Amino acid sequence: TIFTTISRESMKNVFIINAHQPYPFSEGRLNRCMVDLAVKNLESKGYEVRLTTMQDDCVVEEEIEKHLWADAVLLQTPCNWMGVPWSFKKYMDDVYSAGMDGRLCDGDGRNREDASRQYGSGGSLSGKKYMLSLTYNAPKEAFDDPGQEFFGGKGIDDLFWPMHLNFKFFGMTPLETFACHDVMKNPDVENDFARYIAHLDKIFPPVK
User: d(Cα 131, Cα 173) in Å, to the nearest integer?
Assistant: First the structure.
């Protein structure tokens, strides 16, 4: 598996990003509740938590500092049109582009002096982790099944592969993804919350 767990010895700071963008059909209560659950769960186990939402007035330098401070970044986001909402894309364009000065990554990793350096090898956040927590209108059975025509057998991490690559560009390592499915037509919020708490307890053990 490509996924890891948090080390009890070295991980204690978690930066949570709520990427939800309010839409007429989705005001963002579920993603907000997921963030609240994560904050309560992590702080109860001894983690320090910082939070940014897309409704905040984000200051680029402060957001870069949060990434440098964090041992793990938890991205809470809906799947909007097969990816993250536009406001988080703008956040990445502003914050992550500014961090290419060596703080988040040293450009794309290549240089003229060393032809062996590959594209995407310039990450400065090696040793840090990240986790995706996703909310989908699509039902669970739409994924990982070649008989489902739309996704064609692809899974939730396949759909969010560009987001995985963004964090990999910084040298970060993935934690196991969590997902809520069918959240608009057939929501099962109580069960989703219970599964999420169990997931967090598995991925983030208590800090010693």
Answer: 9
Classify strands 173-174 and 129-135 as parallel, antiparallel or unpaired: parallel
Lowest-pLDDT range of 14-28, 167-181, 190-204: 14-28
What is the distance between the alpha carbons of residues 71 and 124, in angstroms, rounded to a whole number?
13
The closest alpha carbon to 37, from 174, 160, 192, 184, belongs to 192
Tokens of 9: 């010895």
Task: Specify the range with the lowest mean pLDDT, choosing from 65-79, 118-132, 136-150, 165-179.
Answer: 118-132
Q: Is there a contact between 105 and 99 (Cβ–Cβ < 8 Å)? A: yes
- Strand-pair partners of 178: 133
Q: Are 18 and 32 in contact (CB under 8 A)?
A: yes
Size (the chain), residues: 208
25 pLDDT higher than 90: no
CA dihedral sign of residues 35, 38, 44, 49: negative
pTM exceeds 0.85, yes or no: yes
